Amino acid sequence: ANKYLKVYKKQIGPDPGSINTAKIGGIIANNSSGMCCGTAKNSYATIQSMRAILSDGSVFDTHTEDSINQFKQSHGELLNAISSIREQVINDTELTQFIRKKFAIKNTSGYSINSFLDFEDPIKILERLMIGSEGTLGFISNVTLQSVPNYDYKALNLVYGKLDDLINLTVEISKFGLSSVELLDYFSIQSVRNEKSIQEYLIDLPSDDYAAIMIEVSCENHDDLTKQIAQIDQVIARYKIIKQFGFIQNANVMATLWKVRGGVLPTVAGERPLGSSVLVEDVAVEIERLAELVKDIRKLFKNYGFDSAAIFGHVLAGNIHFVITPNFNNPTELELYDKFMKEFTELVAHKFNGSLKAEHGSGRNISPFALVEWGEKCWNIMWDIKHLLDKKNIFNPDVKLTKDYTLHMKHLKSFESVDDEINKCMECGFCEPVCPSRKLTLTPRQRNSVARKIVSLTGLEKEEWQKKYQYYGIDTCATTGMCQTTCPVGINTGKFILKQKPSHNDIVNHAKEIKVAKSKVEVGNVAAKVIGKHNLETVTKFAHSKVKAIPIYLSTMPRAQAHKLTNEGSSQNAEICLVPACPNRIFDSVQKYSEYPSKLILEKIGFKVNYLADNEKSCCGQMYRSSCNHIQEKASIKQIHQQVNDAAGFAIIDNSSCAGFAKDSGVKLLDINEFICNNVDKLNLIQKYNKIALHIDCSTAKHVFNAKYLEVLQKCAKEVVIPEGVKCCGFAGDKGFVVPELNASSLSHLAPQVKDCEVGVTFNRSCQIGLTKHAKIEYISFVELLLSCLQK
User: Fold this and answer.
1) Is residue 157 domain-resident?
2) Residues 101 and 124 reside in one and the same domain
3) Which of 148, 305, 393, 654 is 20 to 30 Å from 569 by CA-CA measure?
């Protein structure tokens, strides 16, 4: 949503830390807020209308007057009951004051009963009750939100000092309309000390009485920003701070600074003891009492063995988070955790009159303590609301409200030790949006979770789970490692999955392997000419349904490579040694060229090019990593490393995944696409296309993609479309032929997004095959695109 709103300099109000992976439905059901929005721009404050499905199957829709009137007629009894609860609330002065005070700060525990004070219309009250209800009152299927400004001019300052001074400073500067003020306590700073990119911004703090705050300001124009910074600097000058970096406006430096804040949770989670869980709690109090709360919680940590637990959060809202890592497999730790939760909830709710949940979901961990926070009157009102809207208690039972006061001790997930590759997984789900199998079988988070479950099983039950895991967990994993790019602790579930496959450790004749693969394509091409490519796909699909090892001949199968990839004459004067990648030695380009396209474009740039000698024997080793032939993988890496070192000129390979694998293996092979981007000024390009589609394949995304790529593409087309929700296409080498449903599922919503594009472009040869099939437009290589756009 924010991506589409950005061109209007707008965004949605809620800005949770999980904004890149969160769904709108979850944001609404959770009443999410975040660093900047506080209570003024959260889901509750910015909702305009909604549609929800209630437990009786009816639709509650506030988008139009007609739908509202229909609901009033069909649910008059429900609305009257809501109005009766409102009368009960507003006629109790003590209760009214209590509720107003509770919602003067962030609060997502219990239901949004402040709606009884904010609105008279029962429709509006019901609409707000749904917000933050976590699916316990109904299913929210559609919402309209009011957007908020998203200013371009921003600045960020990192300030160190005593915790009390920093809180007082925040209170004083809050009148200037800051975007956010983020707190990092002593242990938060300690947790990120080993992050190299932020070393110059970290200092040694004398004790845990000291902390840091990050102050961000944003304005509509540069003059307003300068004025606001000057006002804040005047206030800072009056405080005893030990270090500040001044307001930085450089976007890259600001992004680096934010790593200080963003690195806390991943670091704590990544360094937790084996078998322990990651628990992130979230509370709020009046900002003036925040320093006192932090000190009291720190005492609790020491009493219960969480000595190095990190505390961080949103100071402007009096909202802090803390991370603890209890081991629920240990009965002693579980008992201590129970005592900690009871003392912690009493402290926040009674001493500070705070919120046990400020912006996170309360779930089943906090619901046993709802009575502690809200007292009998409010608790009973919340139960009345639950019974009105969910008489059979079928919607998310025990979330938000429960009468089982030991629920936080039950049904706890066991984090069994499985493999070093995934043991640190905290099952947050940040990996899921980039996974190609997310709509087909399992996501990386689910693969890890199921693997942990299997370890805990025995006998026939374990065998049954392992049998199903073969397809759901192993066969349908692309193993491209895109999950690692969004994982807070850097887990590559693909590496773990590769370990689950049987090894085939044999030295093979690589040249023969490629020759055989190319011959199969040639035979397929001939058969397709005889019976038609669509008919051949149907026949091979049937054969594949009977024997899974038989690959499917897709209707978008390219021609076999026709060019002879050998040198003619001496290679002594060559400036570039071109290494034709294995996929390009098998498959030809989409268009026919007089010369091999990769060599042609490099010569157009102005370089003398020769092929790598004996390139038919060369391989980066990736195909053998994927097939778990680790002996041949190592042999291939060693061989190409030697070939490249012996070659004249610098070596370039012409497939992105091969370039990425070579880079990871320490082989000095340049990616042809990156090389072209760096030398594009030597090409005379015309803007031939109106609109093209761009697929950024996994390797390009992980290793080299940057703004230069888009700049080059914009020389070729007026508009470049990057489809939403397509990260890894799922073709994954040859998986598109043997597990075609993975590719189909990943690209299931691609075609509508690119239907107006004249052509698609990507940087990986095998990706082109699946993209062309499912997009219903031709995808060509980056090299082919540039060749087609050269000034004649």
Assistant:
1) yes
2) yes
3) 654
What is the predicted pLDDT for the residue at 758? Answer: 98
Tokens of 82: 């809501």
Answer left, alpha or beta for residue 459, where phi above 0 means left and psi between -120 and 50 means alpha: left
110 plus 25 within the same structural domain: yes
Whole-angstrom Cα distance, residue 605 to residue 786?
11
Q: What is the pLDDT of residues 499-539, one digit of tens each?
A: 999 998 899 999 999 999 999 999 999 999 999 999 999 99
Buried-state track 584-600, b at ≥16 Cβ within 10 A, e below 16? bbbbbbbeebeebbbbb
Measured CA to CA, the distance from residue 532 to residue 526 in angstroms comes to 9
Q: pTM to 2 decimals?
A: 0.89
pLDDT, tens digit, 9 for 90 and up, residues 610-628: 999 999 999 999 999 999 9
Once rounded to an integer, what is the mean pLDDT over residues 295-303?
Answer: 95
Q: Are residues 476 and 524 in the same domain?
A: no
Task: Convert the pLDDT of each residue in 411-459 to its tens digit.
Answer: 888 788 999 999 999 898 999 999 999 999 999 999 999 999 999 999 9
Residue 289 belongs to a domain:
yes
Same-domain check for residues 667 and 706: no
Phi then psi for residue 350, to 5 deg, are -100, -50
Residue 276 CA from chain centroid, whole number? 23
Quick: pLDDT tens for 2-47: 888 888 889 998 888 777 788 899 999 999 887 777 778 899 999 9
Work out the number of other CB atoms within 10 angstroms of the CB of residue 4.
10
pLDDT, residue 191, reads: 87
Instruction: Encode 655-712 in three state secondary structure.
Output: CHHHHHHHHHCCCCCEEHHHHHHHCHHHCCECCCEEEEEECCCHHHHHHCCCHHHHHH
For residue 533, give the amino acid letter.
K
User: 551 and 486, same structural domain?
Assistant: no
DSSP letter string over 113-156?
TTHHHH-SSHHHHHHHHHTT-TTSS-EEEEEEE-EEE--SEEEE
Helix H, strand E, coil C: the string for 619-657 is CCCHHHHHCCCHHHHHHHHHHHHHHHHHCCCEEEECCHH
Residue 572 confidence (pLDDT): 65
**Which pLDDT score, from 0 to 100, does residue 571 have?**
57
Tell me: do 448 and 535 sit in the same domain. Answer: no
Judgement on whether residues 26 and 58 belong to the same structural domain of the protein: yes
Q: How far apart are CA 117 and CA 124, in angstroms?
A: 11
Let me know whether 195 and 258 are in one domain. yes
The Cα–Cα gap between 93 and 3 comes to 45
102-152 tens-digit pLDDT:
999 999 999 999 999 999 999 999 999 999 999 999 999 999 999 999 999
Asked if residues 260 and 158 have their Cβ atoms less than 8 Å apart, the reply is yes
C-alpha closest to that of 723 among 700, 763, 754: 754
Task: Provide the token pair at 226.
Answer: 């300068």
Q: How many domains does the chain have?
A: 5
Structural domain for 255, as ranges? 153-360
CA angle at 328 for the pair 414 and 262, rounded to the nearest 5°: 85
Q: Which residues pair with 183 in a beta bridge?
A: 213, 313
